[in-house]
Amino acid sequence: MSRIGKLPITVPAGIKIEWQNPLLKVKGPKGELSLTLHEGFDIRQEAGQLVVTRPSDEKSDKALHGTYRMLIHNMLEGVSKGYVRELEIVGVGYKAEKKGENVLVFTLGYSHDVAVVLPPGIKAEIIQERGQPLRIRLESADKQLIGQVAAIIRGLRPPDPYKGKGVRYAGEVLRLRQGKAKGKGKK
Predict the structure, then answer these.
(1) Which of 1, 92, 146, 171 is at 20 to 30 A from 70, Cα to Cα?
(2) Are 105 and 42 in contact (CB under 8 A)?
(3) Closest residue by Cα to residue 135 from 92, 176, 96, 175
(4) For the chain, counts of helices (H) and of strands (E)
(5) Which residues, in sequence order, are CB contacts of 44 under 8 Å at separation 6+?
(6) Are residues 88 and 119 in the same domain?
């Protein structure tokens, strides 16, 4: 069996689980998520824990066993605690503002502003502290969705390898490249 797949998943208090093969629905204080499993996979609930079992020892079933276990674990953690992703905007004149409840408008050095419409389930907050780069805090119960939205925002203006300007994940370490050597090699 898969080492990850055979581990039981502890269910946090206050989480409702509905399992109607092949659909799993998880509901908690931070939201509601669902997952459709392939045919043959089963979920058993015993003593406050979930156990995922696979239908056979075929290579494809073995590959999905650990994947489904981790997806269910991430769903339970998401609806109980939630996920947070922070981005930093570094650069003179680069800024972001929130328009309405689900639209972020970025000024990132292009000739026009760039608007990003946030999907349902994502909450955004813009944090401006004196002496610190502008930060965007994203919150969601869905780990995949929050990662995808953060990657889309970062892709608007990835960090420049020479000056470090652009949108980056909070805590991301950049290795800045050295520019051209001025006057070197001239005779």
Answers:
(1) 171
(2) no
(3) 96
(4) 2, 13
(5) 50, 51, 53
(6) yes
> With contact defined as beta carbons under 8 Å apart, do 22 and 38 qualify?
yes
DSSP character at residue 51: E
Strand ranges in 58-159 using DSSP code E only, listed in sequence order:
83-90, 95-99, 103-107, 114-117, 123-127, 134-140
Predicted confidence (pLDDT) per residue in 22-80, tens digit: 999 999 999 999 999 999 999 999 888 999 999 999 998 988 999 999 999 999 999 99
Shared domain check, 73 and 40? yes
55 and 90 together in one domain: no
Domain boundary among 33, 64, 80: 80
Range of the domain at 143: 83-169
Q: What is the pTM of this model?
A: 0.88
> Which residue, among 178, 156, 149, 176, has the nearest Cα to 86 in the 3D structure?
149
